[in-house]
Amino acid sequence: MKPYVILNAAMTLDGKIATKTGSSNISGEKDLKRVHELRREVDGIMVGINTVIADNPRLTVHKIDANPEDNPVRVVVDSKCRTPIAARITNKDAKTIIAGANDYKLEFIVSDRYANFTKRGIDFFFSGDKRVDLKDLMNYLYESGIKTLMLEGGSTLNFSMIKEGLIDEIRICVAPFVVGGKDSHTLFDGEGFDTMDEGVRLELFDSFKLGDDLILQYKVLNK
Ligand SMILES: NC(=O)c1ccc[n+]([C@@H]2O[C@H](COP(=O)([O-])OP(=O)(O)OC[C@H]3O[C@@H](n4cnc5c(N)ncnc54)[C@H](O)[C@@H]3O)[C@@H](O)[C@H]2O)c1
Ligand SMILES: Nc1nc(=O)c(N)c(NC[C@H](O)[C@H](O)[C@H](O)COP(=O)(O)O)[nH]1
Q1: What is the pTM of this model?
Q2: Which of 67, 74, 181, 193 is most buried, with most CB under 10 Å away?
Q3: Pathway listed for it (predicted)?
Q4: Domain count, the chain
């Protein structure tokens, strides 16, 4: 079993979710409120380790009225357990799970870092050898009570998740500017598919303007 997974992201018209320097201020104010309403609705929110390092996000509901119990469980996909101990996702505002890979587990669980994380109440889940096995992780999260999960990037994790058929819905904010750059991060990076035929098919079920931005909502078809 797996949670119902909604990928949410903001991109420029040219499909970039961050520049090569990591600059990623894309959504307008109204879209940020929409994002926080979605955060309030879901049981969990997941990002890749590079997003934690680049953005130091809180992953809590803080741009709209909310109670502490509205915060989703935060999940970081972090094979080598590189999450900085001072990262905001380690604070007490919400529960946090770090998902690591088995090849790095033994060394990590005897370290002072591990002791520090567990002292802060952070949970760990290990699966896969060099990279986190995302199917196993989804099953673990579902069994832990996370029935709906918001995926908030970045590009590499987004591609692995869609390639493995783990994304159910995609909600995209398209902002009215372009930044270009072959080294910018796009909505889906990873290794990509070789042919268009292999592309994951989507069905647009809603679209609307929000402030200056355009919101596109898709169901994922061939999972
Ligand atoms: N505009 C937006 O909506 C938005 C949202 C989130 C992130 N971002 C941007 O995305 C950038 C980071 O994206 P990224 O692609 O470098 O990193 P990422 O956040 O996708 O993290 C990827 C890392 O996760 C780890 N990982 C472990 N198991 C994995 C697996 N099975 N599949 C994939 N990854 C696995 C690996 O260490 C991998 O390098 C940042 O610059 C951030 O600002 C933008
Ligand atoms: N929807 C959306 N629009 C953006 O313009 C943007 N940069 C992100 N980026 C996703 C990132 O994971 C974090 O949402 C932000 O870094 C905000 O951090 P908070 O958790 O609110 O502290 N997401």
Answers
A1: 0.98
A2: 74
A3: Cofactor biosynthesis; riboflavin biosynthesis
A4: 1
